[in-house]
Amino acid sequence: MKQQSQFGSHWNRKILLSLSILLGAAAGYSAFVAQPAYAAGTQQSAAVYKQFQTYVQQSSTLAKARSYLINHIDEAGLWYATQMTLQLENAQKAELPKYTKKLYPEAVRQAIDAAVRKNGLTYTSLLNNIKDPKIRTVLIEGRDKGYRIRTSEGMYYPVMNYESYKAFKPHIKTDIGTYIDMMAAESNKPSLKEGSIIISWNELLARTLAMEDFVNRYPLSDRLEAVKLALWSKKVNLFIGSGNTPAYDYMEEGAPVIINSELRQAYEAAILTGNGDSELLSALEELLALLDRNNNEFTPDVQKFINTYLDPN
User: Fold this and answer.
1) Is residue 297 within 8 Å of 258, Cβ to Cβ?
2) How does residue 118 score in pLDDT terms, banded at 50, 70 and 90?
3) Region of residue 153 (phi > 0: left; psi between -120 and 50: alpha; otherwise: beta)
């Protein structure tokens, strides 16, 4: 971040003094006071950033890094606050595979199972019901490092808790605040579970359009590539579906494979209410026209269109 000049030279001070006399004593006083105040603010922001670095660089102090950022982000200034938020996310993601293994042992799984049956899958309920000190230590670690616990096919695993990042939004750049909102929607209510799309087609389309808008609106964002990757995955779900929720299926054995009626309705509703600048909505319009000509069947022409759209190279 480019820092404002401190007007340290003799001649700059002399010029400012002359200007202050011309503009009036009050204005002159303000000019001189503002510079040290700015310098102090910059030094404080840099000090917060420097202290954060001592925590975020090591796995053993990741929880401390998160706690420090929560308590001091309002002292950091826009640039430093944004950088620290991104660094915390990077560190949490890097630590995730290592922490995941701590939830794999059978004793941990069984303890969580028993606690979930009583009060549900939250850290509060788990810690209220699990007394084993080693398992409690594992759970407290996950909570303090900023993970949520999810379950799938009888297993428990941690995911990023982007909802907690929303507390940082007033202090960081707009594009990263928007990114946090999109990621929080996904971490709060995942699109997929066990091979099935578990949100409505309308919600899936809304999330995909939000990602497309982000890519168009913030081409220089630090999270552009991450959103592009998530956007492509969402498009695959919108045009093809998932293993257990196909976009095209047959009603009975031997019948034509046709588009899911609710998915088609979601396409139509999004086109009616959407932004005319959306490349995704334009593609959906073309696809609907093609489906109209083919009685909603998944023909080779439809397959070719989808393949070309998802992989234009």
Assistant:
1) yes
2) confident
3) left
